Amino acid sequence: MITIGVDIESVTRFRNIPLNENKEFYERVFTQKEIAYCTSKASPAQHFASRFCAKEACVKALLQHDPTWKLDLKHIEVRNDKHGRPSIKVVENTDIELAISMSHSLDTAIATVLATRGKK
Question: Are 97 and 88 a contacting pair, CB within 8 Å?
Fold first, then answer.
């Protein structure tokens, strides 16, 4: 079974909730590695927005496999390899493979997640 999730967000939303004033929100949604990555960038809001999209898209794709899953956004982590290519990891062990595509402009972020489960 192959499923897909997509999410789009306004970068302004994240500009309007800066980390230093909304630490509880960021720590509830993002891992420490994600926070460190985003805050190392010249425009953290764009990177937070695209990671938020990726997490939401992942939830949408995974819930098509099992609508009863209770997924915490912090248990989904967007990572980048040494070449900057993103990948996505769910903390819970699943037999589902995930592929991700993310992009952002100054004002908008988008992510798509493809979830594949082999036949049992």
Answer: no
